[in-house]
Each structure stands twice: as C-alpha cells, then as structure tokens.
Amino acid sequence: MNQYFERRYIIGGIFITLILVLLGRLFYIQIIDDRYALYANKNVIRPFIQYPARGTILDRNGKILVTNALVYDVNVTPKEVKAFDTLAFCKLLGIDKAEFDKRLAKARKYSPNLPSPFEKQLSPQLYASLQERLSEFPGFRSGLHPIRSYPDSIAAQFLGYIGEVNDNIIAKSGGYYHLGDYIGISGVEKAYENVLRGHLGIKNMLVDSRGAQMGSYANGAFDTQVVSGEKLTSSLDLHLQKLGEKLMQHKAGSIVAIEPSSGEILAFVSTPSYDPNLLVGHDRSVNYSKLNDDPYQPFFIRPIQASYPPGSSFKPLSALIAMEEGIITPQTTYNCPGYYIAGNRRIKCFHGEQHGTVNLASAIAESCNGYFDMVFEKLINRLGPKQTDSAFTSWRDNVAKFGLGSKLDLDLPSEGTGLLPKASFYDKMYHKGGWRSSTVISLGIGQGELGATPLQLANIEATIANHGFYYKPHLIKSIGERQVIKSEYTVKNYVGVDPQYFEPVIDGMQAVVERGTAVTSKIPGIIMCGKTGTAQVNGVDNSVFVAFAPRENPKIAIAVVVENGGQGASWAAPIASFMVEKYLRDSITARPSGIDPQRYMNADLMPDISIYIKQQKKQLRRDSIRQARIDSIKKAQATKSATNKNHKPAGTNYLSALKPKDDE
Amino acid sequence: MSNQQRSFFFNVDWLTVLIYLALCTIGVLSIHSAVFDPKNASIVDLDTNYGKQFVFVIVAIVLGIFILLLESRFLSALAPAIYGITTVLLLLVLVVGRNVGGNQAWIPLPGGFRLQPSEFAKFATCLLLARYLSGTNVKVTEIRSFAIAAGIIFFPMILILLQPDAGSTLVFSSLLFVLYREGLSPYFLILEGLFITLFVLTLKLNNLPLIIGSIIVITIAIILLFRRNRKLMMTLLIGAGILITFVLSVQFLYTKVLKHHQKERIDIVLGIESDPHGKGYNVNQSKIAIGSGKLWGKGYMQGTQTKYKFVPEQSTDFIFCTVGEEFGFAGSVVVLGLYLFLVLRIIYIAERQRSPFSRIYAYGVASVIFFHVVINIGMTIGIVPSIGIPLPLISYGGSSLLSFTVMLFILIKLDSNRMGMIYA
C-alpha cells in the first residue's frame, strides 16, 4: 500500500463510467431505435416478383383473339460486364456508344447484381445473329418475355392495346405496378385490366451481401402465389368480325351487330383499322406514332365514339313513340304531295317523290318524310301552342329510354353519348317560347340536332326485335374458367312502349327490304327487317342501315354506317345483309339483285383526304381564334381562373363533327 | 516462502480464470456463428477460422497451465530480455512482415500461421514498465523517472506506428492509468480527456477561431473566478497554451500529415461525411447488425447480417456484431459485464499485492484490456473511430489470444505468490 492507494477508486470509476456509456449507446441502438431492425430486413430480404401471364381473350366460340407469345430480350448484369468489343456489340444492336453507356448506367443504378433489360423484344433475325456471339459479351444474356399476339390481326379497337406503365400509374397503383410493367391502355385490355393482369407472385428470398440467394424467408410465410390473368370469353364471332372488317376495308365507318336475346355484341367493326400486332414488338413506338399521326385516325373507335344523325333510320322509333302516346294508329294515313309544310317551311320527301296516300307501314317502307313530319308536329303540338316545351320534353324522355343521348355503359372505355338536345337547348338557341314544332321539325325524321353512335343505333334495333326491351350491350360474355357473367347483363331494360305497337312498325321494316328502299339487299329465305338512312355530316352523305333478322325469333340486330357512302340503300344495306346472312347461315348465297360481297370489299370509299385537311385547317383557324379569345379573357380576368375546359387541341377535323359535343 | 509441497494451483484466483474461460468460449462460439457456412458444415474444421480458434484456445490453456508451473521470481529479471526480444521482432516485422490490409504487422510462420509482434509488445511493455517503476528511488513525480517510464512506453509505439498500425499504437496510451496510479499528476489524465474532446471538436467543427477563442474565454473566466489563487492561474495559463498548441497541431496533422484512408476513418465516426455504401459501410452494417438484435437477439446462428456476410471482418475486429445481433442487448450486457468484472477484479488483485512490481504489472494488464474493450465495442457501435484492434479473448486471432493469455496468467501466477517474497 502506498500514498496513492485511493486512486484505485478513480481508475475503477473511470472504467465503470465508460462501460456504462457503451451500454447506454447499445441500449439506444438495440432497444429504442427501430431503424436498424428495418435496415437489417431490407438488407437481407429481397422480394422477387413473378409476373403472371396476362389473360387471353377468346371469341364467343372459344377461338383465340389475343394470346401471349414469347419474345427475346437482352438482359445485362452490370457486375459481370467485363471489357469486350463494345463497338461490335453496339453495331449488332444498332446503337451508338453513348446510348450503350447510358443503358448500362441505368441498369447499374437499378442493381449491379441483378439482370435488367438492355434491349427489349429483339426481332428473330437479330436474336439469331446475337445468340451466336453472346458468349463474346460477358454480362449479357438473352431472356424471354411474354408479349401480346393476335393470330387473326382483327378487332384492333375492340381489343385495345397494352403499354408500359408511366410514373403516374405506378404512383397511383399502391405498389402493384413497377417500372417496366404493362397495363391495358385502351379497349378490353383497359376495361378488364384488373381481371386480365392476374396477381403478381412475390417470393421473399434471403440474399447475402453479394445478392446471391440463400433460401426463402420464413419458409415462404410472407410469400404470395403468382396467379395468371383470367381468360375472357368475348361476345364477338370471329368469322363475322373478319367478314365485317373485310367488307369495310378501304372505307371509314362502323358495323355493330348485337344478339337481341342477350345484348352480346357479335361484331364490332371500326374502320380504318390497323393490325394490332403493330403495337407489340420491337417497332411498337414507331408504329404507334405513325398510326397516331394518320389523318384518318385509326385509333378513333367509331362504333362508340362517332356520332351521326340517324336520319331516316330514326323513323321506326318515331312511329313507336307516337303510337304509345296515342297520336296515331297503324291505320292513320297521310296524303303525301312530295313535301310537308310545317309553319312556313316546306320539307321535301327524298328526291321530291310523291308517295300519295301512305299508312304507317308504307310510310316506313317508302321512307316518307311527310308522314313523319306530320306525326312529329302532332306530337309536339298535342298540348297546345303554349306547351311546346313540355310536349317536347316528354318526347325527348321517350327517345332517351331507347338509349339515345347517354352512354349505354358498354364495357369499353371512352364511350360517347350521342346527342339528344333538351328543351333548354332550344330555349338558349332561340329564346323561351320562341320555338315551335315547326322549328324543330327535322328531329321527326332523325335529322337536325340528333346524334347516335352506331352502337346506339344497333341497340335500338335489338329493342325493336325484342318488342320493347334490351339487354345492356356488352363485349365480354363471361370471365374466367368458371364463365362468370355479370348480373347487370341479364336485366331487361324496358323502353316504355307497349309490345303491341311493334308489329305494325316491323311490318314496315320488313317491307323496306321486301319491296322498299333496301330491296336490293333482300336475302333469299331470310326475313330481314330494316331501315335505310342517310346521315349528313358537314356536307358528306353517310350511308346508314339498321336491321334485325330473322323477323321471328330474331338472332341478330345490326347497324352499319359507311361514311361518304351516299344513301343507306347503296352501301350500308348490302353490307348489313351479307353480315346477317353470314351469321344466320354461315355462308353467303347468290342474290336475286345480283349484288356480291367481293365488289363491296374492293370498293374504296375513303373520304377525300382534302376533306380532312380542309376541316383541319378550318379547325385550326377556329382554334386559334378561340385560343386568342381565351387568352384575352384570361388577361382580362387575371384574378379569375377562366379556362375553357372544353377546348380541344387543333388536329381534330372532319371527325370532330362526328364526335358529340359532350364527348369526354 | 514458497513451499515445494504446495499444489501448483495453490492460491490461484479461480474467479479470474473462470471469466477468462467464459470469454474464450463466447469467442469460439461467436466465430463459429460468424463463419458458419451451411454448405460445408462440420464441427471442427481446421480450415475455418472457427476451427483454428478452437485450436488456439486449447494451446492458450496449455500455455496458461505452463505459466502457472513456472517460478515467478524470474519474471521481473526477465522483463528487459522479453522487452528486447519483442523489440527485435518489431524491427523484424518491418523487414519481413506480410502486408495485410495496409498494415505490415505479421511475420509469416510455417503452417500458415502468422505472428503479430505488436500483440506481444503490449505484454512486454507492461512487464518492463512494472520492473522499472518498482525499482528503488524511482518516482514518476520526478522528471527523470517519468521520462524513462515514458520512453519505455513510446519506443514500441513508434515502431508499431511505422507499420503503420494506428490502433495498436494507441493501445499504449492506456498505460497512462498505470503512471497515474503510481503518482503521476492527475492533470495528465485531465489533459488526456481534454485532448480527446478537442481532437473531436477541431475536426468536427473545422472552425479554428471559434475553438481557440472558446479556450481563451473559458480560461479567463476561470482565472477571474479564482483570482486569489496565483498558482492555479499559472497552471491554467500553461494548460491553455498546451491546448491551443494541441488544437493547431491536430489541424496541421489532419490536413497535412494523415493519409487519406486514415482521415476517412476519423471522418466517419465524427459524422463529417456520411456515405453508408462507401467508406462507412463497415460501421454502418455493424450498427445494423447490433441494432437489429433488439432485447433478446435473433438466436444463436440466426443473425442474418452476420450469416450473410454484410459485416466485413466479422470474426476479427467486428466479432461483437455477432454477439449483439444473435443475443441482443441481453448478450451485450453479459459480455460487457464480464469485461467490467474482469478489469475491476484485476484492480482488486493489484491492490492486494505486497510487491509493487506485481501491482504495477496488474494495472498495466487492466488498462490494456479495458482500452481494447472500449475502443473495439465503441467502434462497432459507431462512437469511436474504426481503428482495428481486437476484442480481447473473443476476436479471432492466435497472436491476440495468446498474448492476452500470457498477460493474464502471469498476473494470476504473480498473485498466487502474493504472500511470498517481494522480488525487486
């Protein structure tokens, strides 16, 4: 013992203090701070995503419309890349050195240890030449990747297309989509995305510090199984669709065919069309911009987005509403002098033809404008001159029940509503009380401010075929192996017209084909009931024909619109008759009138491109004036945020006239 | 008087031996967990660090028993010779040493083993320091004795710094505790504490005027507070001068002398530059391993951080990660508790010696072990710069284990003879 004996306590105290400091810090990082446990999991648990196969889409008879094909990608694992002949590699892929470095950097950023795509969807030729030399390029391997494949190249607008997700979609998906995933962009692919995409499988794997897999985490307790997308059975008839697309080639227009007893859409033709295979594969983006820039707008889904004045095809509907309202009976006659005088207007029958005394059926068969002007005037005036608008509103409501002026809620995105004005529309156009039956008389013969999509036209025919109700038209018959049918598709939607009033109208429609305007389209042995129409849009006559067949126990209701086709009888009716016969008989027989499908397939009726360009220029001018006006308003109301939401960019044209105003 | 009839194990401090064995066992088990490879599982495999450490422990225990059989009276006399041999080895390693991880610290031996002379230098220095300070007429309060004692400590430090092995060099600074116990002015301890604080502040704040200004202001404040005490005033003025010189030299050393990788290591701990994937990777992964252990740990051999090799050098310098991750805070308390108990036990042993040689030597052993523990564990949890020194008895490494074994068992042997003659 010596004099510094007590210093043992100071030294001991220092030892204890410092050990306690260490323990305090350990307490903090091990017990208080949760971050480290999270980091450790993040380090060691890596979720591996297994991509489900996207669901296939079949036609109503189980034939494939779209399926998956495998294509080759080149993947790169940056860590394994060693020095090699970069130049040769770049030359093979057709990229330059800068692009090579950019892609490699992107892959390295994603993960140095995991493979990521370097070049996607190689053409078979490129794959063959690359595969031979791939061993010269360390770190690069080929990988398989499923893409959509369309064996018959049909129904492009119906099926739609898929594309890579963008940042916005990824952010909104709540973690479902990842960079490089595909999503339905349009058509059925978009409408049924949730069903088609299936469920991602996630395998939680343990990895070591170099990213090598060391087995599954917690024996797979937190894994999810990969579930393939559901198979969709569509309502389309592949053969009918094919014929329809052939008949409509070199033409702009639509065919919509519906099975009246179910609402299933049998054909959904929109032309000009494109080969859906163009939107997959290596050249997708090039093809996409080419199609997008096409002035005829192949991406425009005419059956649901174009809106035409129904013209004379509206007449059966007029007659039904008038009978239901007690304005006419089937026996009501009218003596047609070749025109009708409404107020101080004189409305001519087509070509000024004098029909003489007509009843309901013959008025439909002969398409007598006078008769229906008379009916419409009686209808609107029945409450007296002071009550024009309430009589109009009741007429409008009756028309609306047939599905005009609103969406039919088809299972396809971007459906238009058509056009069915309200009384307030005319109040604004003239002034309240400033319009009478004679002012809006053209509505009675399906012209003026009326617009219907081809789908709506076909649905009206299905309603007439069913004597007063329709099933919601739909494109997908059933979902998955279990053939689930949505319950909303089994509900009858009544249009508020007593079944007894349909027979006289159908008589007239049968006469249209038997001896009336569409007599050349008569199908031997099949009773087809139809109605021709001519829809004028911006001075272009569009040929319209609506029909259903056979008369007893109808199997198909159809609407055909051929833009720039003149009268309904000339193009739309024959095309409709071929479609009907093909569907009912599976073949097309020789016609007494001598018409033959081949001629219709070959005919080129594409509206003159100058119409489009002229319209485009007009539109551009209008847009620029409107833009200038908007700008000046904006400046004037600097405090208000006055923006015109309805403003459409330049570039819409003739087609914009087909699009209803409230189409969004 | 030694009695030939007595057992060799008479008076052995079994508690210390028990702690020693516990720590060695924890070491072998931790190394086993750290290096375990499920693909090549085998209980004892001499090719793995675990297998080798197992052999080292057996060799160490045999060596320990051998030391207990020795006649301890020669130890004091042998001290200069042991110190001399170590010095030769330290010089030799600079010539024939193998460079591992930037340090030329190992002499290759046959059979794939390597000798790390700096580990034995600690033990040799403790011995010679004890021998010198226990001599008659030697007082550390006298300038000449202090200079010689400091020389004994500094000489191996310089040789080790040449390797360069900064970690092992710093270990010798812990011997300041020994000098303090033997009468060195407490100012040296206070000064060391201030040095460490100012070292951190200088590099972290990188603002010389502020730091030097603060030193001057605080000094003046204290002088004004105790203005009657003239002696204190002088001490404070000298102290302030030393501190300012120190701050300036730290700044100079850091910017002009230190090598890039040394600067980086200091930067990481001080949080000057944060880069968890680059140079801070080791410490960051080590913190994740220990932090993710929570209270009870993930279970033996269940630590994912260590098992999947996220922590580098996990069987040597970062072995504590395995303890922290697999046994949690509970395991950390046990291991730190064992070390604290060991060093306090050594102090207790030291103070019961009649021989100053034994006491001084014991304090040396306690200081070196304590320094290793605080720096190593402090490093794994990111509060001390990562300077690579092993965790005594637990870290993988034969030289380290054998050197600590020799140190401890010589102490135990000296202690067992505490009732005997005082050798000087």
UniProtKB/TrEMBL annotation, chain A:
<keyword id="KW-0997">Cell inner membrane</keyword>
<keyword id="KW-0812">Transmembrane</keyword>
<keyword id="KW-1133">Transmembrane helix</keyword>
<dbReference type="InterPro" id="IPR050515">
    <property type="entry name" value="Beta-lactam/transpept"/>
</dbReference>
<feature type="domain" description="Penicillin-binding protein transpeptidase">
    <location>
        <begin position="253"/>
        <end position="577"/>
    </location>
</feature>
<protein>
    <submittedName>
        <fullName>Penicillin-binding protein 2</fullName>
        <ecNumber>3.4.16.4</ecNumber>
    </submittedName>
</protein>
<keyword id="KW-0472">Membrane</keyword>
<keyword id="KW-0573">Peptidoglycan synthesis</keyword>
<keyword id="KW-0378">Hydrolase</keyword>
<keyword id="KW-1003">Cell membrane</keyword>
<dbReference type="GO" id="GO:0071972">
    <property type="term" value="F:peptidoglycan L,D-transpeptidase activity"/>
</dbReference>
<dbReference type="GO" id="GO:0009252">
    <property type="term" value="P:peptidoglycan biosynthetic process"/>
</dbReference>
<dbReference type="GO" id="GO:0071555">
    <property type="term" value="P:cell wall organization"/>
</dbReference>
<dbReference type="GO" id="GO:0008360">
    <property type="term" value="P:regulation of cell shape"/>
</dbReference>
<dbReference type="GO" id="GO:0005886">
    <property type="term" value="C:plasma membrane"/>
</dbReference>
<dbReference type="GO" id="GO:0006508">
    <property type="term" value="P:proteolysis"/>
</dbReference>
<dbReference type="InterPro" id="IPR017790">
    <property type="entry name" value="Penicillin-binding_protein_2"/>
</dbReference>
<keyword id="KW-0645">Protease</keyword>
<dbReference type="InterPro" id="IPR005311">
    <property type="entry name" value="PBP_dimer"/>
</dbReference>
<keyword id="KW-0133">Cell shape</keyword>
<keyword id="KW-0121">Carboxypeptidase</keyword>
<dbReference type="InterPro" id="IPR036138">
    <property type="entry name" value="PBP_dimer_sf"/>
</dbReference>
Automatic annotation (TrEMBL), chain B:
<dbReference type="Pfam" id="PF01098">
    <property type="entry name" value="FTSW_RODA_SPOVE"/>
</dbReference>
<dbReference type="InterPro" id="IPR011923">
    <property type="entry name" value="RodA/MrdB"/>
</dbReference>
<dbReference type="GO" id="GO:0051301">
    <property type="term" value="P:cell division"/>
</dbReference>
<feature type="transmembrane region" description="Helical">
    <location>
        <begin position="233"/>
        <end position="254"/>
    </location>
</feature>
<dbReference type="GO" id="GO:0032153">
    <property type="term" value="C:cell division site"/>
</dbReference>
<keyword id="KW-0812">Transmembrane</keyword>
<protein>
    <submittedName>
        <fullName>Rod shape-determining protein RodA</fullName>
    </submittedName>
</protein>
<feature type="transmembrane region" description="Helical">
    <location>
        <begin position="327"/>
        <end position="348"/>
    </location>
</feature>
<dbReference type="GO" id="GO:0008360">
    <property type="term" value="P:regulation of cell shape"/>
</dbReference>
<keyword id="KW-0133">Cell shape</keyword>
<feature type="transmembrane region" description="Helical">
    <location>
        <begin position="208"/>
        <end position="226"/>
    </location>
</feature>
<feature type="transmembrane region" description="Helical">
    <location>
        <begin position="143"/>
        <end position="162"/>
    </location>
</feature>
<feature type="transmembrane region" description="Helical">
    <location>
        <begin position="183"/>
        <end position="202"/>
    </location>
</feature>
<feature type="transmembrane region" description="Helical">
    <location>
        <begin position="53"/>
        <end position="70"/>
    </location>
</feature>
<feature type="transmembrane region" description="Helical">
    <location>
        <begin position="12"/>
        <end position="33"/>
    </location>
</feature>
<feature type="transmembrane region" description="Helical">
    <location>
        <begin position="393"/>
        <end position="412"/>
    </location>
</feature>
<keyword id="KW-1133">Transmembrane helix</keyword>
<keyword id="KW-0472">Membrane</keyword>
<dbReference type="GO" id="GO:0015648">
    <property type="term" value="F:lipid-linked peptidoglycan transporter activity"/>
</dbReference>
<feature type="transmembrane region" description="Helical">
    <location>
        <begin position="360"/>
        <end position="387"/>
    </location>
</feature>
<dbReference type="InterPro" id="IPR001182">
    <property type="entry name" value="FtsW/RodA"/>
</dbReference>
<feature type="transmembrane region" description="Helical">
    <location>
        <begin position="77"/>
        <end position="96"/>
    </location>
</feature>
